[in-house]
Amino acid sequence: MRLVLNCLILLLTTSNATANTLNIDIYGPGQSRVNLFVADPLSKESGVSLGSIPANAPQELQQRIHANCAFLPFFTMLSGKDIVGGPNPGGYLGQNIDFNKFQLSRTDIVITAGWLPRPGGVGEVELRAYEVYTGRLIVGKGYGVASPQQIYEVAARFCADLMEALTGHGDFFRSNIAFVKKEGKRKQVYMSTAQGLNIQKITNLDGICVSPSWSHDGQQLVFVFLDDKAHNLCVWNRQTRELQKRRLPGNTLVSPAFTRSGTVAISLDMRGNPDIYELRSDYSVGRVLEENWGIDIGPDFDHSGQKMVFVSDRLGNPHVFLKNLGTGEVSRVSLSGKYNTGPSISPDGTQVVFAQLVQGHHKIFSVDLTTGQERQLTFGPGSDEDPTWSPDGYFVAFASNRSGPYQIYLTTKHGDEPILIPTGPGEATSPAWGKL
Amino acid sequence: MQKLSVFGLIVLALCLTMAGGCSKKVASTPGTDTISGGGSSSGELSAEELERQRLAELQRQAIAKIGADKIYFAFDSNELSQESRAILTEKADLLKSTPGLNLLIEGHCCDIGTNEYNMALGERRARAAYEFLVLMGVDSSKLAIISYGEERPAVEGSTEAARSQNRRDEFKASAN
Asked: Based on the domain organization, do A124 and A209 belong to the same domain?
């Protein structure tokens, strides 16, 4: 669906950050926490009731913004009960807001909304985020909302701008995740936003779809489809929604991934052993990217296209390796454990996450490629598998059965408490993070 | 095809025994006398049909026997046990002694490992059986392999009993 959303006015976005302004370093060794309050919506004109705006849109938008911000581990979400003197901010503009009571309530940021009805549409809204202690406007944006379905996108855009103003990166709210859903004996590919919204079914094939992976421009999705007789390579074009299905040499197709240049890398057994090849643009088999007597699968590439991580059992057990495609040098990344699989390299090429088998369950580990330091990111019951980096290199999505059937969860490079990404009924696995 | 050519021979024999110019009539309404008179044709048909039925039965039994016994593996292993080798030897004998059979070897894994690695491991398990059968003299052109990783468990569940049943090769034979 092409969303017609008009950004009416850029009210004001302060960019003159000073030492006193609120900034959040999401990449530092530890991250500060910020108390955030999303205020109830207000009418921009006295005498115009919010009730005249259809679909309960003002309240829906504030709830969506609240839910979005709750995904960010550096926010502590406050409720109306936490605000001394009541949650009404007194106005949606800085000059009318009673910042004192928010200071008393230890609020760091307050978000306001001012609405007007819009003939032929839902309404027009001005959203603002203020830093309570200075009264500074962090982000101010205006939106025309044509239909209730646009509420989630308005919330996503505003939250992207807020996150970008605070951390320098807002891609979490601009990106999406592909994943595999189990439907009876079949498995189909789906996609949604990283918050589990706008869920779309991509495939309806009579068999099992596995291992989806996005192109670096987010426009193509590659995966393997298993029918009753063979493995097939599938490439889905997001613009045209066309699905190409191809047979490749050999019997077994494992873990396809797009290279930085837009070609597909995939593990094929055409020489009797799974090795990693790069396909040409016509999907014929091109050069070998990694070849060994053992199993070589799971290629993933950094943004520069120079670093490729993969899994190999060349040392007897599956371990994660890094190949410099410029020099051909291969080095071992996972140093502990006996079963390390499913690697994903951060877009900047500095971090690798993977799943390690620990006492019968998989847990997500990360390795800093600069220091070689290995760290366990997830704990708790069940298995955590198939980690995938967000485009900003801050979040890590993974599949887990920690609460029963496999679902998609979110943590960060710091190992923050995992948050469920709601994807509806049925098992969801194999998340692949791409851009919108 | 075979039926059609036998039928053609019968028609030809009928034509030869009838007066010239009546082939159309004979072909449309063959006389009972003529058919009973062609004793040798009828005998060949019966023998061929019997042979065809015998082969079909042989194939049916071989397909059932080949498919009945799976072979099992240890965790993260594609090594054939002694028991697996004995089972595969029986399958090799059946494949060699039964004409017209193809075999699809399916490699499967339990759910301990991760999906993609299991897809590669399933390939190795299927290939281990494939290579053993070829060593035993089975024509490799009759063999195909496919890995399903952990996608098609034989037994649902995450107990060791279920998992040990899922680390397996399955054998799907079919007639040409």
From this structure: no
Q: Last residue of some domain: A168, A189, A206?
A: A168
Same domain, A192 and A145: no
| CB-based contact B144 A429, cutoff 8 Å | no
- Of the candidates B114, B145, B152, the beta carbon closest to that of A342 is on B114
To test the contact with chain A by mutation, choose from B115, B125, B158 the residue with the greatest count of A C-beta atoms within 10 A, namely B115
Specify the 3-state DSSP secondary structure of A430.
strand
Phi, psi of A290 (to 5 degrees): -160, 130
Query: Which residue among A274, A360, A362 places its CB closest to the CB of B123?
Result: A274
pLDDT along chain A (436 residues), means of 10: 44 43 69 90 91 93 97 95 93 95 96 94 96 96 95 96 94 95 96 95 97 95 94 97 96 96 96 95 97 96 96 96 97 96 97 97 97 96 97 96 97 95 96 86
Residues A331 and A197 in one domain: yes
Q: Is the reported ipTM for this assembly greater than 0.90?
A: no
Q: Which of B104, B106, B116 to mutate to test the interface with A (most CBs of A within 10 A)?
A: B116
Asked if residue A269 and residue A233 are part of one domain, the reply reads yes
Task: Give the C-alpha separation, A197 to A155, whole Å.
Answer: 11
DSSP result, A374-407: EEE---SSS-EEEEEE-TTSSEEEEEE-TTSS-E
Smallest Cα–Cα separation from A27: which of A311, A414, A428, A434? A414
Give the number of A-B residue pairs with CB atoms closer than 8 Å.
82
Task: Give the Cα separation of A147 and A245 in Å (integer).
Answer: 37
Say yes or no for a CB contact (<8 Å) between A297 and B119.
Answer: yes
Give residue B44's domain range. Answer: 2-63
How many domains are contained in chain A?
2
Local structure of A233: helix, strand or coil: strand
Indicate the burial class of A216 (C-beta count within 10 angstroms; 0-12, 13-18, 19 or more): buried
Burial A26-35 (b: 16+ CB within 10 A, else e): bbeeebeebb
Strand order in the sheet with B168-175: B71-72, B168-175, B101-108, B143-149
Report the C-alpha gap between A112 and A127 in whole angstroms: 6
Structural domains of chain B, count: 2
Q: How far apart are CA A50 and CA A285, in angstroms?
A: 61
Q: What is the pTM of this model?
A: 0.86
